[in-house]
């Protein structure tokens, strides 16, 4: 009996095992046990049996011991146990694709008979392996994988250990069965090293406690595998990588990537033909029925459908992945003092999910995909893209068959029921077979930490992280990659691949050391890989769309200023929604939008002009690619002309990339909208009610009060980018002057050219301390830019000085409001704008919990009225926008409409408390959010025209409609019976900083607003040389020496609403002269900077500055005059400012003397600036200074205005800081020849209107009169525009008056209702 069984085993296993003999087999027949030892497997047979990819082959496989246990009496319920002791496998990468790979013959295996008892027993086998060692070898890489304690067993559909009969699901109606297998292992160890470069460190990876779930779908008729779902599940993964290890891995991927791509495409085509027949969507398409309408009659079929594998898929899920990237031992790659010993960068990924679907029908649904929401933005994009591609394909083919013999005989139109054209029908059927490969990446949370150095062991601080709590089903990162193909060997036009990424709210904390370290780390890898690639491949043709929701960039100042309470600690740049794409559509930038942007830029002189501030040798700021792209003349290939009437005739023209004619190298960026806020943190005390009721953000753990100060109001911005590499001979004249030390430039030049335009008013406000923050931020950015170039020079070489970056932008109107302490006679002046948080806390500490809770709810309503734009604080704190709300008291006496029109903002804040008070006193438990939403409907109809824009400031605008001793609540009569329980509660005043900073209404601020129309700005940077050019068409000043703080913030938030009615008047004429022209040239001498930084004096200073509390010396952590980095940058910087201000056609400027003095104090820096040469010319300036300060003499007759006129005033400053007024000295900017400077002087002399020109005007009165008439005409035009603007404002004010009347009537009705309700409740209580 045993010998017969041994012979049968030898007969069947001899095909797979080499040198198998009976002495290697040990059997116990009745016990059902057997053992085989020292097995050497046949490599060729196993390679075909395991269906290994054609780019690899099995060279050696052994097993020292194999045991089997068969429960003869319980085969239906107990699985067969197969135990392997040690398995060793050796695999090699082929130099060319292995013969005998996937083919049409082996893609359809022969039938194995019906699925019966033997198949059930084999599918239920449980296998265990003590250890597996897999060695992989290639020409450039070798690796070893060791896996221990492997167990493969059958489990239930819910992945629980059950009887063997519960591990399968069968559906007789479909003729299919599902087999559920679970595999787990204890440890996995990976070690790999490069064979081409032995100096590279080996790559190591260690994982613990992993498992995999496998679902196999088979046909009952022939046991054919229809699909499979493989899920790999990991708990935590920690991986430490150095740049040499990553470089070794990149070498390995580069060596086999070509073969893998060829093998995958070959296997995919043949397997897809079989997979296509099993897809329900395709079967429904053939039968013209929907797969969703399939009739499921039995409960077993419904249960089967729940766990059914609709298509083959592979999934990877890991709860947490920690990646640590660090420098190799030794000195760091960056030249920065803080990174000279290297650094480490940590990346933490939470709940990483990777799904791969290799055989998905392109037009099929995705509802069967696990953990996937099919109704998303990508699904709509793919549907529209496929429909557009199908229509374009049919139109291209139909155009060729219009004149075919078949088409000419069809005199009658086609019936509406279908299309009888055989060519069109064949194309439609073929397009229905389009398959796709989909890769979906989801990351629940993403955290990148700042670089840590060996100088101090600190807790890693976030560099990139999410800052808003999201639902669990909303991931931080959602990315999808889709490629298309046809099954079989079919050559047919394919849609372009799609790349889609959706990133939800995250913030980036700019850190100098982190950015420099990442720059060196990535550049070093790219430089090393570029040496391996002889001919770089062209970028793949694909459609890319990236959407970022609420991204935020934070610039922090680490130094604290305790004596400057209003000094910002950080600046937040935020975008509500950012879209980045490289294809054209209405949502992602159309050619019409690009044309409009180009037309706006071409109105100015910076785009192509050679007059000042441009020069002859400046590079073109608008890439020729933009113009060709807007006109549709930059196609990568001409459309294919198809000739033929039948499908066989046109088949040779149907290539895969036939319709890929549009370029994909022009990128569109849209920010809707963009804004910026300063953040100020002040220490405060926490009372018990605040700790219990208020929602405190994470930053409050440091006992800080958070306030956000607007800097840039919300503004939509669109930009276009083009990355290109071209020969540098076209720009040799400009490059030779900018390359340091006269070094030769490389033969090629990489350029990035960008253009942008803003759709609205760029409203900015700035205080003195915010100005100081910006000055320190500019110094830190200069440090970052210098070291980026310095490090790239060391890694890449001198060719970095040839790279070109240009930016050209247009802003219709820019308004900058400078805020300073007020100076209003007869009113109490605040000496400073500092935040007195201690007084605020003392006033609120005595309130009870009820009062505090009411105040908190009231402030929630007021905070919702701010700015009409989303504004998020760090972490989870949200500061909503300002909307209409109710007052703390009913309105019984209606003021005059003129008074209401001027005090509308005060009435709004008074109205905001009324609804809350009524709800509190009347007992109505309406949430504050509902109250705000009810009144937001009222405000949405009338708030757009409620306020006069800031540019129309005048005396009436500055005057408060109420006396200085009357608060906001006094403007409306208070019903004492309504607020009888809260008489002692002070009404809170508005503050834009999310804190009640002031409880009085007479806190004033001085405002000086500078308005610039038709602003053009350009930046050109090559290496360490930069040129900044600026010009505008008109400039005007508006001032208000005293304005309520909250009133100014309300008007600041409504500037953009008025701009829509003034678009036509702000564009101006292309021939209109520019009023202000500026050109700032700057170059940093890198060699001098190196010399200064390497000097003994600088090294000793740096060593003395390092402390255990602050070991870093960069300008973000250590700003100030004592910084050696700042001194080195200033000493090696050569700058020159050249400007011209022509105010001959502008109105007279009128300023108060207090504002002039405050302006001088405003621009005073805390650090003594280093002078640089300036050449400025002022022409035709007329100004009037009004003395508003009290006179020290009692005999003074009163202030007398000071008027002056400047026909022509040259102003120059040399490098020593000495000003020369009226003396025109030729100052040659760096990198500019003397001839160019002479040309500049000639243009200035030609356009000047000085004393010599006035003398000539006396000799030629006709020309002078003509100039005066022209100036009067232009002045009348501007006055006409002002009248039109005033008419528009009056119309909006009339509408506001009507809306206000309606609102007051509604309020009165509500007051009556509430009083009736109150009386009813009081009667009920009695």
Describe it for me?
- This protein is α+β, with helices and mostly antiparallel strands.
- It is 31% helix and 29% strand.
- The chain has a ten-stranded mixed β-barrel, surrounded by four helices. Strands 28-29 form a two-stranded antiparallel sheet.
- A hairpin with a 5-residue loop joins strand 28 (871-872) and strand 29.
- The longest helix has 65 residues, at 1261-1325.
- The chain is elongated and about 135 Å long.
- Residues 102-111, 288-294, 403-418, 685-703, 729-746, 825-1002, 1060-1068 and 1231-1261 have low confidence and may be disordered.
- InterPro entries: BLTP3A/B (IPR026728).
- Residues 1266-1317 form a coiled coil.
Describe the SSE topology.
Elements: H1 2-13, E1 17-18, E2 25-28, E3 33-41, H2 43-49, E4 56-69, E5 81-93, H3 104-107, H4 117-123, E6 126-137, E7 141-154, E8 168-171, E9 176-194, E10 203-219, E11 225-242, H5 243-278, H6 280-287, H7 299-306, E12 313-326, E13 344-361, H8 377-400, H9 405-409, H10 422-431, E14 435-449, E15 462-465, E16 477-485, E17 498-503, E18 507-510, H11 512-532, E19 543-549, E20 552-556, E21 570-575, E22 577-581, H12 591-602, H13 624-631, H14 647-650, E23 666-683, H15 688-693, E24 704-727, H16 732-738, E25 748-758, E26 761-766, H17 768-795, E27 804-820, H18 837-845, H19 849-863, E28 871-872, E29 878-879, H20 897-902, H21 904-911, H22 914-922, H23 928-942, H24 955-958, E30 1004-1022, E31 1025-1032, E32 1034-1044, H25 1045-1052, H26 1055-1059, H27 1063-1066, E33 1076-1084, H28 1086-1093, H29 1096-1105, H30 1124-1131, E34 1133-1142, E35 1149-1152, H31 1153-1162, E36 1174-1186, E37 1202-1213, E38 1219-1221, H32 1234-1247, H33 1251-1259, H34 1261-1325
Parallel strand pairs: 5-6, 11-12, 17-19, 18-20, 25-27, 26-27, 34-36, 35-36
Antiparallel strand pairs: 1-3, 2-3, 3-4, 4-5, 6-7, 7-9, 8-9, 9-10, 10-11, 12-13, 13-14, 14-15, 14-16, 15-18, 16-17, 19-22, 20-21, 21-23, 22-23, 23-24, 24-25, 27-30, 28-29, 30-31, 30-32, 31-33, 33-34, 36-37, 37-38
Helix pairs in contact: 5-11, 8-10, 11-17, 12-13, 19-23, 28-30
Region (Disordered): 825-853, 1229-1264
Biased composition (Polar residues): 1231-1242
Coiled coil: 1266-1317
